[in-house]
Structure to design on (182 residues):
């Protein structure tokens, strides 16, 4: 047997053009090129349609992370609700140590001193005591007001965050329903 010489084209574009020109010279060659182009386009279309179908199905399949994200958001939302309730709840401690009790006590002391001054036309110690208690009362009320404002602000922030999480959860639930229906 005689070995076929191996021809390695140095320029593939030149070789392609030569084969194309040869095929275009005859009617059968032109038919072959037209049929080959039609079949190649059909194959490309089938491959493209398959890729589109796979992409559509992958978009419809929820990742496992979606369920985990839903569970974590629900846990965060629950913890935020508990924290908000704890912030707004009346404390279950001895009220005698709370600022509100001290404020009330100072107000009662001022009231008692004022009554005792009515009986005595001038009592420097009593006036001093009134001034001291009034100062304490003012400082405690300012502190209590600032603390109350912080608690209300924190509770409001928790409520806003919980509402945003609720919106995210609704979106997740909608996507899960769409995925289940598909």
């Amino acid at each position: 047997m005689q070995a076929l010489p191996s021809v390695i084209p140095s320029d593939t574009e030149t070789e392609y053009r030569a084969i194309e020109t040869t095929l275009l010279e005859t009617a059968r060659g032109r038919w072959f090129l037209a049929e080959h182009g039609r079949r190649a386009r059909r194959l490309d279309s089938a491959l493209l349609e398959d890729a589109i179908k796979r992409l559509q199905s992958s978009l419809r399949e929820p990742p496992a992370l979606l369920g985990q994200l839903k569970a974590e958001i629900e846990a965060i939302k629950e913890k935020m609700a508990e924290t908000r309730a704890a912030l707004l709840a009346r404390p279950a401690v001895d009220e005698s140590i709370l600022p509100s009790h001290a404020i009330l006590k100072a107000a009662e002391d001022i009231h008692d001193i004022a009554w005792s001054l009515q009986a005595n036309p001038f009592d420097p110690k009593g006036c001093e005591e009134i001034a001291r208690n009034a100062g304490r009362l003012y400082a405690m009320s300012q502190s209590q007001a600032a603390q109350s404002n912080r608690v209300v602000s924190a509770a409001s922030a928790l409520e806003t965050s919980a509402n945003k999480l609720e919106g995210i959860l609704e979106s997740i639930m909608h996507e899960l329903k769409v995925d289940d229906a598909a």
